[in-house]
Design a protein that fits this description.
single chain; about 70 residues; mainly alpha; 5 helices
């Protein structure tokens, strides 16, 4: 079974976004206060995003919050 970070990374890549592009979407469209380093930590499972961040990520990637968890 894949981790939350692995699912975020897989979905981001399937959507065709680089880390920088995806962070810009999260910042500009969802007003999320994060950067590429934080995204990298999430994708490597070194840190877990807060629930509000997860909601933004799920929305940006067109998946349910349940799918990410």
């Amino acid at each position: 079974m894949s981790t939350l970070g692995e699912r975020i990374k897989m979905l981001r890549k399937q959507a065709g976004y680089t880390q920088n592009e995806f962070i810009e979407i999260l910042k500009n469209e969802y007003n999320l206060k994060a950067d590429r380093v934080m995204l990298s930590k999430w994708e490597c499972s070194k840190q877990c995003p807060h629930i509000e961040s997860l909601k933004c990520i799920a929305s940006a990637l067109n998946v349910s919050l349940d799918y990410l968890n």
